[in-house]
Amino acid sequence: LQFDVSPIGPVPLATLPRLPSGQELAIETRGLVGRESVGLGGRLWPSAAAMCRWLRSSGVQGQHVLELGCGTGAVGLYAAALGASSVTLTDGGSESLLNMVQANVERNRALVDLTRIKIAQFEWGCATDFSVLCFVWCSNTVCHSSSSQPSFGMV
Question: Over the range 122-131, which residues count as b (16 or more CB within 10 Å of their CB) and which as e?
Fold first, then answer.
């Protein structure tokens, strides 16, 4: 699998806002190309920082959260650090990407309750019970043309 990153251009890496406590999440990212790349999900995009700023005033504390296309896991981890009851981080990316998400969860163990976070492979259109969720989001989610119909149908 290869990505043509030329249309993306020089988008700067995002910086997440500090938590209300003043602490910061530690998020590993990867480049878009090269041996260590995990694809587009390995980058911290500006939309992640925007979602985190929105979460600070959203009332996510005590809520059940699902992040579709979590990439690095940064936004879901931010929700967990704000006190979400449970956070499910999902992505349809590679096993390497999900391993990076797991490492990011572990890296932030001092800021989040690890028992409230799940990581799962997710493919658009798969049957899943989301009945207990209060917040479902996706930002900068990339869908291949073959999965656009199932993704829109699910949302």
Answer: bebeeeeeee
- Classify 18 as helix, strand or coil: coil
pTM (predicted TM-score): 0.79
pLDDT tens for 60-118 read 999 999 888 899 999 999 999 999 999 999 998 899 999 999 999 999 999 999 999 99
- Start-end of H helices in the chain: 46-55, 74-81, 95-107, 148-154
* Residues sharing a CB contact under 8 Å with residue 20, sequence separation 6 or more, in sequence order: 56, 82
Q: By the 8 A CB rule, do 40 and 11 touch? A: no
* Count of beta carbons in the 10 Å neighbourhood of residue 94: 16
Angstrom CA distances, 144 to 93, 106, 123, 127, stand at 12, 30, 11, 19
Residue type at 68 in one-letter notation: L
